[in-house]
Records
---
Amino acid sequence: MKSTGRKQNLPQLLLLIILVGLILCPLITVFAQAVITDGRLNLYQAWMTIASAENIETVCNSLLLGICVVLCSTLIAVPTAYLLARTQLARHGWLDIIFMIPFMTPPYIASMGWILFMQKRGLFQQLFPATGAWSEKFFCFGGLVLVMSLHVFPFLMTMLKNAMLNIPASLEESGAVFGADFRLRLRRIFAPLLTSNYVIGALLVFVKTLSEYGTPYTFGRRIGFYVFTTDIHRYATTAPIDFGRSASLSSVLICICMGMWLLQNSITSKTSYRLVGGKGSRPSYTELTTPAQTAAWLWLLLVILTAIGVPYFSIISTSLIKLRGYGLVAGNFTFDHYIELFFTNKAVAAIWCSLFLAVSSATICSIIGTAVVVMVQKSRGIERKALEGISLLPEMLPSIVLVIGIMLFWNAIYRVIPLYNTIGIMVLAYVVLYLPYSVQYVSSAFTQINGSLLEAGRTFGGSPSYVFRRITLPMISRGIFAGWMMIFIIAFRELVTASLIAPPNVLVVSTYINREFEQGSVSLGMAMAVLCVLITTTALLLFHYVTDKGKG
């Protein structure tokens, strides 16, 4: 009996070892690199490194940026969420898709779009020559906050909108019956019920801001504003390379993000409202007057224009300009840059490399993620918690921290497993970063399976493999595919991993765009950016089609 039990636990143990090697070992290596000097534990040196004036400034910059982005995102997200949830504008379902575009647009591409639009002799000055050099004042801390807020506000907006949709109409109607005007109902009904959701969303935006690399790299460097991610990257890639300092900053960032995650969990567990009764509830729409409706549409148009219109207009128009010096004039537009993409060896190689990394990492994540979910369902106690916790850990941490850990760990064991400085290390890094997506989507699909179906399969003599092939796998296949698609979308445009651990002379779409942008071939880089957006948008539409069909 003991032998049988051990054999049954062997797959869980092997899977746990794989997860520990992929995720925990790199994180442990980061902390070890931060506190070990010349083979000896040196906490004092680690503290002095962290407490240096330059690093203290980086920490303060990061925290200030996070707080300001949360505030700015709130100003955008709150009224937008209300309009899309509680007014007649909610009947326009296409608005939901529109407002997810900023989130799905790679932040470094959106940032480049704003730079091209507002820079000296940029598109804004070409369209409005009378503005003079006014637009160049955009390149300041406030501009950085705005650009980052326009990317992350959909997180907060979606959480607030879903919370508003769950507030029964009867509560608002009761307040109106007893004479409460709109502002009073907003203060006494909506605000208390939305507080916990807002705090959770704000914490998510804060962590997302601290973790973001693309915008601080493209926009922040331009104004001399450095944060965690840019300094970690700089210490790890720019001579003289200082992995100790990079690891120290990474350790601080890990602690802050884990603290935010624990705070978020605490708030989630302590603040919950049961608002849905057995009778169900109908959506309540505030019918806006004609002036109010006009103002609402103008607000939504302003948000769409700044979050989507400006960056997309900039990258598309720049990709079509023949000579940037002549600007937006007749006869200065061409499709040659797009044609060049498919006839330049480096551009074609970058596209194929991104496709390979996206497909391979999505496939491997789907296999491992499915195995994790199946094993979690079979396991109990500490094994179950360990499998679930470790597999979801990368979701809680900034990607740059995990990549630094992967660099250090796999470089240290290079003599044992020569994976470092190969394309394989990029696939491995992508798998580590995006495994939680697969686990979450497959787990969500698994919860929809009625346990009686599995029990019936076992009762009629089906082996575990037979039950999995004929019952479990067909029923979770939609979740597997949804996770695969989401990983493909994100992996195809990944920047920080490729910029840190790509082998020499290996380019992907993101690093190709960044290289052309930095070296002055802006139109060619923006043509690649447009192609990147088209591929990921097509995949996103397919993803929504699959998930919506699954709900139906």
---
Amino acid sequence: MVALSMADGYARLTGKPQAVIVHVDVGTQGLGAAVHNASCGRAPVLIFAGLSPYTIEGEMRGSRTEYIHWIQDVPDQKQIVSQYCRYSGEIKSGKNVKQIVNRALQFATSDPKGPVYLVGAREVMEEDIEPYQLNQSVWGPVSPAALPRSGVELIASELAAAKQPLIIAGYSGRKAQAVTDLVALANNFKGIRVLDTGGSDMCFPANHPGWLGLRYPGHDVVRTADLILVIDCDVPWVPTQFKPSESARIIHIDVDPLKQQIPVFYIHSMATFRADSSTALKQINDYVAAQGSLQKFIGSKENIIMGQRRDEEYLKRRQEIADLAVVPEGGDGASLNINYLMAQVRQGVPTDTIWAIEAVTNTHWVADQVSATLPQSWINCGGGGLGWSGGGALGIKLASDVQHGGPGKGKFVCQVVGDGTFLFSVPGSVYWIARRYGIPILTIVLNNKGWNAPRRSMLLVHPEGDGSRATNEDLNISFAPTPDYAGIATAAAGGEVWGGRAATVAELTEKLPEAIQSVLSGKSAVLEAQLDGTTGKYVESHKG
């Protein structure tokens, strides 16, 4: 889980494929939800697993030599993960091993990117072969697809005609240029507002007046928009909660518009295009710049008025976010809430911090208070497999260090994780690795004393059922009494991790700077934020 999550985080920041090696069927199963996350998050990773030897009597070098070879053998090991992978295959001979690996990497790095899985039995790994070389220049990924000219013309004309245009994005921020081009488009068509669905990346900066923030399963503007442009997004809205109007004109651009790994998916779009989002946005901007009629619209009073209205709505939204982040009533002794906490964290860390987010039910508030503005500064768990962010944050930090010249030279990385999700991340491994390899990250654990996601899911179906009146203890989703989250990390790292907790404004004021300074000095830090009081939560005893 941790190794693949690290590879996932590294690959998502750099775009370069990473490799993970595991042991036969049990090691493959140990990957767990990380395979799901890499698939949904479009992370190019190659997983290689051994196979139990297939000969018994010593017929070949590599034949079975241990008891475990009989019980760690299954009829088709690839089937454990193949439905999550872009490609799965077996190395059957050393004579074409390079071709097989290159084929797998082509799948991993071509859109939609994702994990690939290779297996090889020990007899094959022991095979003697003559060294050989391949021309690696012919093994690159498939080039990005572009919009047809008719599609470019259609989208541009629809944007000019729309009174309430909405763009919904999910993965387009993977490429920094796509963020720049989307901003340029929104600068031209001043009625455009952009909703980020948190698929994986920060797609639109929070300092632009068209910014609506990160929301899933949708936003009220979905219901009122007359034009919706869906760009590289798996779930633009959940129809049972948010649904476009019958008259809305919908256009869909995606590298995988049919969502071939999702059994049930459809958008009632008037036009659907298989295209790379960055390429498509540049095409649209170039076309707009060359068309006199569109330039006339951009300078029109109508467009300017739409921009003024958008500016007013944006300022109101920013004020609402700021109002939520004020010091809680009660001053220094007041309990922490998510908005105040994250506003303080955002103010305390470096401005170019990279955020690794797995905050589950708190994600919307975290996103609002962080208000990311830099491309590739916000990386969300690509899927729903809890536990990604521990290894993910380590991989992101490693990648950033490499990008900026070596260990300790990369950007500050902050992981924000729910309490239950923290436990899923295998913290014993995460913080041992952080110490062993010198990978300093700041972890903020959001302790709200249990699993809140199951309650929310239940209430969406049975808002007035018996469960709505049940306590978290009744529903068996309470963690009370909660673990010592910081203590788990500290123990795993042999004491070489700063660990602390804060439950009040005063404690946060004291502990947060210490945690940040620890990371800046090269040692990871875990700050447990106890939200809404300490009842049922770990409180350190001070016995003499």
